Fold this protein.
Amino acid sequence: MLASHDHIDILKSGVRDWNKWREENITVTPDLRGADLHGACLERADLTRANLHGAILEGAHLMDANLLGANLWKAYFRKADLTRANLERADLHGAYLGGANLEGANLKAAILAGANLKGANFRGADLHGAYLERADLTRANLHGAILEGAHLMDATLLGANFWKASFRKADLTRANLEGADLHEANLAGANLAGANLDGADLTGASLEGANLGKASFRRADLTRANLTGALLIKTDLSEAIVTNCIIYGVSAWEVNLDKATQKGLIITSGKGSIITVDDLEVAQFIHLILHNIKLRNVINTMTGKAVLLFGRFADGRKEVLESIAQWLRNNDHLPIMMDLPAPNDGNFTETVKTLAGLCKYVIADLTEAKFVPQESLFAIPNIAMPFIPLLQNGYAPWSMWKDLASRPYVLKPIVSYDTIDDLLGKMTTVIDEADYLCTAIADRESTHYPSVLKPEASVS
């Protein structure tokens, strides 16, 4: 068997002699480890399965060369020309290909883990299933490259050009794509979990079914992007441009949309009418309403029958609330009971406002409610639904009641009662008055909504 230096001498004698020798020695694995092939002309050379571990190929000409299955581990290809070269299943682990020309090259299932590919030209290259973990593709040109099923975990792709590149089902977990040009790129089904796409251009890109969980798209441009069925969990879209995107079927949870530009988001699948909204979170809600009869029924029930009922659960007051709740159930209403909390409960006000906004009326038993967070009660009458105050005789309303009573949606006068039976006996009149006030609110007959009882009625 020839020594490795003999293999190098044959190769340096010219491609014709080399290829002839390969034909005559098809079982021999060429040993070209560490060979200095700086600037060598190896166009169309047969280097299949050759061992070029650590070889120096800086500026070498390898156009249309066949490097199928070759061992190019830590080989040095700086500015080498590998146009249309066949590198399928080649081992380029840790290789240096900075500035190399790999246009149209075949890199299917090639191993490029940890490789330096800065500024390399992969235009139209086939990297289907290639392994690019931790590879550095900073400013690389992958215009129209095929990266379907490629592995790019923790890869650096800063400022790279991926215009019209195909990343379908590629693994880009934690990849750094900051400022990358992904204009019209195909990322359908790709895993971009934890990836950095800050400032990236994703105009017209397909992210259909992609995993964007915890990915960062700060200041990214997603104009006309297809996000059908994409997973957005804790995704950062702050300051991003999210306009005219298809968002049908997205799953969005805890998405950061701070200062994002949202407009013309398409929530339909393309069949039938096109429906657009200007807010991602609203979009999911609208879609659920349109396609879920049960949810629509729930919403109709809430807005047409729900009554927010709150007061003190302590000191025997809960019995009053439960009695009113049962009366409401018996009269085709849906009671939602809420205990008035101790002071300094910061979550109470927002909870009350949210629930009140879903209900038809609010009924509040103010008896012994000296610890009521007054900002909560003041917020409720500003929502367009009747506020019904109850107070047991012998008790005085708290000091701020006069200010609250002047609000336009508060039923007047305050509904006073002696016993539970006395209160339940007045409930029909109370609800009639609340319905009257609802009608007046809906009709908008004047600039100030009426907030008085009908002349012939009184529930004091």
Q: What stands out?
A: The CA atoms of residues 106 and 151 lie 16 Å apart. Residues 300-443 form a domain with the Rossmann fold fold (CATH 3.40.50.450).
